[in-house]
Write a structure and sequence with these properties.
This protein is of the alpha/beta class. The protein contains 27 helices and 31 strands. It starts with 17 loop residues before the first helix and ends in a 13-residue tail after the last strand.
Length: 1020
Amino acid sequence: AALVGLPLASADFWQSLWHLQKQADSQPPPGMNRFCGVATHTDTENGFNSADLQGLATMVGAGSLWHYNWAPSTQVHAQGVEYVPMIKYPGNSAAGAACIAGLPQASTQGTATIVKGWNEPDHQGQAGSIEDLRRNPEAYAQQWTQDMTVAKAKGYTEFIAPAIAHDTIWLDFFLKGCEATAGCRDTITYLSCHRYRPDCAGYRADPQSMGWRDDLSYLLTMYRLMRKYNERGFHIRGLVMDELGCVTPDWSGFAPEVEEVRYLNQFYRDTIVAVKIGDQEAINKVKRAPWIMPKGPDAHEAFMNYAMAIAQERALDGGPQAGAEAVQAIQNLVSVAWFSQAPGRNFLSAHGSADGVSAVGKAYLDSCKLLQLESPAALTALKEARQQDAKMEAALAPPPPPPPEAALGDPAQASAEGPPAPPQIHGGTAGLPPPPPPPSTDGTAPIRGGSDFPRFCGVATHVDNSNFFNTRDLMELAGAVGPENLWHYNWSPTSQVQAAGVEYVPTIKFPGDSDLGASDIAKLPKANTEGAGVVVKGWNEPDDQGEAGRIDTLRTNPESYAKQWTTDMNAAKAKGYTEFIGPAIAHDTIWLDFFLKGCEATDGCKDTMTYLAFHRYRPDCADYKADADNMGWRDDLSYLLTMERLKEKYNKRGFQIRGLVMDELGCFRSDWSGFAPESDQVRYVNEFYRDTLVAVKVGDTDVIDKVKKTPWVMPKGPDAHDAGLNYTSALAQQKALDGGATAGEDTVRAIEDLVSVAWFSMVPGANYLPAVGPAAGLSDLGRSYLDACKLVQMPQVQAMHDLVLARQGALPPPPPPPREALARKLGVVAAENQVSVRVVSRVCPSAACPYETKAVSLFIGMTQVALGCQAGVDDSHSFTYDTRSINFALGFGVQDNGWYWRGYKAQASEQNPDNAGMQVFLNVADCSVRTSASIAGGDVPDARRLLSVMGTRGAHGGCEVVVERLSKPTLCVAGVGAKQCCPPCSLPMFEGLATCCSKEADGGRTTCEHEATPPRLLSV
């Protein structure tokens, strides 16, 4: 209704679309001259030429097709096919200025009067490579207006807005800026978006298909933006989806043609085209689909900017009209362009074929032709096309596998007598370990995991992202939950962070046939030394190219690495380790299935697989709820079910896997650009960890029943043992399987078999468990996590009681133990003495660091104090140094606030450059000091190469510690020229600044205030 009265489209719009627009009262007048488009160019050596375009036009009708090539002009033409030029980048960039200069006059060189604007300003690989454009959309409305005004001067009258890759929040803020910019509203004729899916192999136009609901949610978001801004004075005529296609599950390339055809048929033909030609069945299905949720928050919310909105990005409740408005969104979709680039994949043309088009080309163009037919004929043709698809799927469907070898949980296993009984592996199969003893019936025995794994609760962290994780932090965590109930790891074979009673689990992060893996094995300590027990972790995320999966053959050929795994774990066996946590997958259970298949065929491998490991991160924790209606919760249950069925499957094949380990758990922002805010993390801990995992483990029957009865808990397939299947073909066919009648019960058993969870604790203010700031202790997140951990250690009756109180928010926090008692409990040995200390800084800001205001910072416990050099003003700080306090177990820290490159041992994931640090230990008897390297670790810059520290007895009777700059420092600041003393781009506060730097981009160059001397040997 808000669109009534908009100006009609220009007279040259195709008459063939008018009858479609008249079929829906809510539709605006027609917009783009043709509904079907092609996005292609010749850069990918596909041979695309005028003959190809003519072939497409011949099949669908030249008057029904348009094309573009991400450029202002083209050499590819076909009679009657309209070309739409593009200004790909903003005109204030060199590339954008070239586009504007190359833009032809309207209605020449195959063009009409429509021009496309910037391509994917929200994506750093396209126009978003201009960082300020990507991060500050409102600011670019003025430039957009200038660019389109130039196009107007060349005769263009219709303007397709910046085409977003996916970020509707970017578009919302850009339009907000446009609203406030004179003349801008008149340069937005259509809103534009792109859509790619990595799951086309299993895509279905069905309310139970998550991918289909996601696509409808995306269209709804775009439609509501159009409606919102038309109510604010714009004249937007419709939506344009000018890139559409399928990619592989890991986004590494285009999906096979068969998947592209499936997506075309299910989404383009059976949803978009079906709604547009008035297919009532499709319209009703869209209207009734649940969980159609637009993205938010809204750009016009009070005090909201783009950065804040991205941090709070979430799926919103679509309301009772979501389905009806999703139908309106499709009716307002005035054009779609298929992304046609790669022969044998998404390419519409087929050189040498009878009609010049590929299978995907025929599917696309046949659907396009439906829009040219009158409604009765179109509906009949659509019905016939669907019937033909059904016949082909039935003909191609493989025969059901024989019951004895069927994949666990496959409905094909069901016999005439009913569904199969749940697999019985505990105590029912020769060679398997007996089950753990059940909890006592009187409710006095503590709840335990089903394995010998030492502790249920773990922490995954190392010194990174300026979290300064150290022994004190680990002691705080251990003091809250009990050191005997906690374990930790750091993705390395050794750790300098230790706390008495807290077990350290070393990691062999990479395969031993790589340099990194060989180094890990060489450094691996003997079992039961250096804080370790007898458990060792294996390769980290072999299915992710950022971790162990950076080794391509490991990531793409898991079966072939079973022998190397066996070799690596045998090396650990030789050092006394007896329990082995399998390769920890990031997400790809199919990778794990094929790896275990290879392990099954490798001598000795089965004996090196004690636990299966996996990681879990979610981008939707802000709205996460332990409820059957919550898609995220069902996804988590499906993931657990998949892992459990892999365990059961391979135990039936001779393995002795004792349980599951989830050794990374946490939350990301919705665009995966960083960690979610702490409030989101707390919600996930409470809803998933406490109210699902822990609740099942402590025997909460309400939760157990809820899990058992939850619908759509679906494991991932196909099975690695399916005939003729390899890892590559399995990935191409991956899909959610019917979990069968026992899916809920099997999921409960998966949680019962979960022997350990480790929270991913890295970034202060987000997912970090220790508190950061003046008060030592735990963050809100740390308290939530460790309180839930303690429930697992309690007698069952008490655990259930405290669980109910925790859900009600009525569980009082326990009083912190006295520092002295905690120190004794954790094995801290310190002198029984204290002294008043005054630290004086004589270090002024370096001339090499033009933006530095205070050159030195002190770290006293969790308190940070910056010192200047103005005598009596800001150059000193006093405190009590107490050797009995955990705060001084590692002395106090002194930091040079300049920016320096880390040493050669620094890992790519670490903040670099960084400030330089050192630890200062005070002898309370004579006020003398000694220094050591910073507890931050990670080859952090050493402040002892820049500063001297001297302690003397002060006039006040206490100690005075004086910090001075060395006359000949041996470190130079990072960066040169305008980037001299540059901060790291990896920190959010500096990200996007022209003066920030990184080791990769800036090459480790330095600037020296004084001539640096060679490093000298530093004593500890």
